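Memo to structure team: turn this sequence into structure tokens by end of day. - J.P.
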Amino acid sequence: MKKICFIIALLLSFCKIFAQENVPVFFYTDDYYLGKYTIEGNKIIFTNEDASEDEREKIYPRSSLKLNVNGYYYFEFSKNDKQLLICGNGFFGYFFEPGKTSKNLVDEYAGYCEANDYYYRIKRRDYPITTFKASSELKEGKNVYSADNLKKFFLGLDCVDSAMPLFNPKHRPWVEGVSGNGIGEYIEISADKEFSNLQILNGYVDISRLDLYKKNSRVKSFVVEDFDNKIKYELELKDEVVFQYFNLEKPTAHIRLTIKEVYKGNKWEDTCVSSIIPY
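Reply from structure team:
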């Protein structure tokens, strides 16, 4: 990828996303809304509607959730059980233990999903069928970092008889393909029906290579052009590995997201976005 000659310091924070939220922070751990984590000022409450009465609620200290130097959150269930967490407020949270999932099983299912265009949140819950295009895309040998990758972060839901989707081991983010940080490059989203919300996973997110997030650039702000309603406005993104929720100003079926500012990578200039979910 494109080299740059400066280095930025990596900062460790423990409550970044939650300090910036103005609404209660919570997420579900399954697609049936049975397991729910609620983050309060000094504690984290887990409720499991599918458990027995005495096991229905567990409480963890607020310090159980930590943001590491790579921009990822980890949840410490116990002294010997620390798991990677990718979540979104009011959305879903998924725990990962990189390296513990059968590689053959995941690779085989990833091939099935690729052949059948079967990815989580694309063909479920009556979500709009979306098409992603971009002004440019990075190509490195056989790897193409295209806008179509934005829908492929998770494999389909029923991968291993579970309510949890799997991270797609073949996933690549969208990466702009021009020199510099890609200011002015854009992603265009068209759908078969209107959507009012976006969930955006910023940066290069790969649970087997956590360092790629900070090494590459991430979007700091997008200019949104709503072609259906003929309006423009801006979205500000946080610099951390979470699904960030945005309520659009008006329902639409056709928007363009243009990069206005970026968080600069400490090794490469390429600006990346891993996933966008319109609904």
